[in-house]
Amino acid sequence: MKERAVFFKGLSVFFFLLFLEGSVIAQSEALPDLPLQGICAHRGAMGTHPENTIVAFKEAIRLGAQMIEFDVRMTKDNALVIMHDATVDRTTNGSGLVRDLTLSEIRKLDAGSWKSKKFAGEKVPTLKEALQMMPQNVWINIHLKGKKRLGIGTAKLVISEKRRHQAVIACEKQSARGVGRVDPKIKICNMERLSSRPKYIAATKKKGYGFIQLKKSRNNGSFKSDIEYLKKNGIRINYVQANGEKEIGELLELGIDFIFTDDLTPMVRAFRSYTASRKNER
Question: Is residue 243 scored above 90 in pLDDT?
């Protein structure tokens, strides 16, 4: 009798584990494919909308950006908010350092009127709000403006909001340590810039980071070979930045994965034209 009980208990455990495995597989299969190349909306659709706001992100999604970039800072009371500058002065009607203000104080500010009256009342979003409104099939480029604690807090939110598959955390080494402490599998874009591009590329490879951000201002004679080396080593390339439609094809042909832009509408249109022409060639 006892042997039968042990047998059925073991059988129950077996089927439970099988169920869990099936659930994990089903969840992974449910994740949408992400774009292989495309246009990155720098701080959302910042050319026409107030940067780093929900309305700017919604416009970037509507236009069809393949990646959306925004910046994260930590408030005085450890909340994570979307803000590029160290102060709120330029993009709100308030003043002061983000790190010296509480979330409640920042949420009272108008983050839209500086761009246009029609955006009056737009609020500074939290990281959680930004993650929750993003579709599952675009890359989310999260640029950290802080150190280890910010990396830890951001990684925890990325996981809790089930965004790990599409999140790229762009950060320097201290915040990267925080991210890695939470989950070393989260994708990192190396933002620890060194004195030269070769050193920057070598450090990115050594750290095992999945993304790098190349700057247009640093283009030189080795640009093509640098891209070839990065692609050979499985490192995806973000490029900052291009606002001319003629550059699109050249950069994508070279192997650039995502092109940052402040002028989203014509760049998305140019990317669609490029991809359509490539399909016709086949």
Answer: no
